[in-house]
Amino acid sequence: MAKERDELLDKYSVRVFKNRKSHITQLEFSDAPDEIAANTRAIPGIVTARGCCYAGCKGVVVGPMKDAVVITHGPIGCAFYSWGTRRNKAKSSYEGEPNFIPYSFCTDMRAPDIVFGGEKKLEAGIDEIMQMFSPKCIFICSTCPIGLIGDDVQAVARRVEEKYGITAVGYSCEGYKGVSQSAGHHIANNGLMRYVIGKGEKAPKTKYSINILGEYNIGGDGWEQERVLKKIGYEVVSVFTGDGSYETMKNAHLADLNLVMCHRSINYIAEMMKTKYGIDWLKVNFIGVGATCKSLRMMAEYFNDPELTKRTEEVIAEELAEIQEDMEYYKSKLKGKTAGIFVGGSRSHHYQLLLKDFGIDTTIAGYEFAHRDDYEGREIIPQIKADADSKNIEEITVEREEGYKDRYTEEELAGMRAAGVELDTYGGMIRDMKKGHIVVDDYNMFETDQLIEKYKPDIFFSGIKDKYAIQHGGVVSRQMHSYDYSGPYAGFRGAVIFGRDITMSLYTNAWALVTPPWKTAPMLEGSLGGGK
Ligand code: SF4
């Protein structure tokens, strides 16, 4: 009986009901697999929390690369609102390494540029950038009007490469492409694969070299992961893309293993690198203590070296000992609470495991821009039918590059999979949720209000747009694109910071203590019909 879900849907008109019922699932008390519709167009006017394709390409994937200039080709609003809203931390890792993260570069397109074309303005802007900053790589990200007027950003990129001898990538990632940010991730992945990965020749120096894919270093998460990985003895060749760089990404094809954090935004590159360079990918999750230990152990199993396994266990034991007391304290404060979580891609799944470490149950969860495999697992992919919107995004085909071979035979990989190493796979969010709980795809403000009313979670982890609406309803909300200026939340030490932050939020929930004026008195006073 999907009581809460049915009550919610009951309020909709027939047309909206038909659409939304397939995007909201109350997990069934049966053995049949739960299904959900995803990655389809939002209903116009329904106030979705999604972003646009440009936001996915510029804001999520290429924006966090510190030594590359990302220029927004379009009006200033698109550039301003994609500047710093996700708190991707970055710092120079050696003397003189450029870090352009604090800058926002934009062609600031105006009416005459829209009428007469903006390619000249874009090239002039890039000349200015070259004079002032001399980057080795420039990404040009197109916004809606650019696609409408037909500026050829790829041609501009080729001219820039020829003129300056740098790498330039033109992205046709106009906001209206696809149905959400997800289209922009795919487009960004294609460009990195075509123009960046494989350009370098700097081989790793150690036996265990890895890339971390889909880690955007929000609040310094990536740095905490690197600290632990380096302590064990891994060499991190490159990170895609938080605190990442063009210089290191060029050498990514020379690493031994790809770790995939955010499955949705980067699985395309993981797949293409497997085909082209024979690099296996492993789905990991460094959000949550239990999840971090599991990921580290799977990595050790992959490399299959007793020395590395021993070191992994030593580091896990050291790290656990360091946080044990704090974790126990926060667990004593948080156990039995309930949470809702609605973020972009894999985070809504990752954070449920960290919440479980504290004894918090997630009763509502969903994604802004996921595909069905992010909910139901990758085995569902053959059943997903491509529609006109997904066909609109280029699928690039790669072939095995000469000189690269698979790290293991298929039999060896099958043996690892049988032992629980999550290679080339992702089980999705639903299987970690309990029966009766709600999974909602691409929710809107009405559904947010209704779900909070019905499930009454103690805390809600949200995106940028929905945070304050939830908070005004008296429920504590933490924004998961900025961590409300805290973090890191990843790994062992991050778990303690997370426990501290949500304990503080829950025990000082100012919003729940305030009685809004409209609850006690009418807000409007007036008269009808002209009388007094
Ligand atoms: S939808 Fe278009 S106009 Fe709006 S932010 Fe995205 S690119 Fe800019």
UniProtKB/TrEMBL annotation:
Keywords for this protein: ATP-binding, Iron, Iron-sulfur, Metal-binding, Nitrogen fixation, Nucleotide-binding, Oxidoreductase
Enzyme Commission code(s) on record: 1.18.6.1
Family matches, as Gene3D superfamilies: Nitrogenase MoFe cofactor biosynthesis protein NifE, C-terminal, Nitrogenase molybdenum iron protein domain
SUPFAM superfamilies hit by this protein: Helical backbone' metal receptor
Residue stretches making up the Nitrogenase/oxidoreductase component domain: 52-505
Family matches, as Pfam families: Oxidored_nitro (PF00148)
Coiled coil stretches, renumbered: none
Protein name: Nitrogenase protein alpha chain
Top-level taxonomy: Bacteria, Bacillati, Bacillota, Clostridia, Lachnospirales
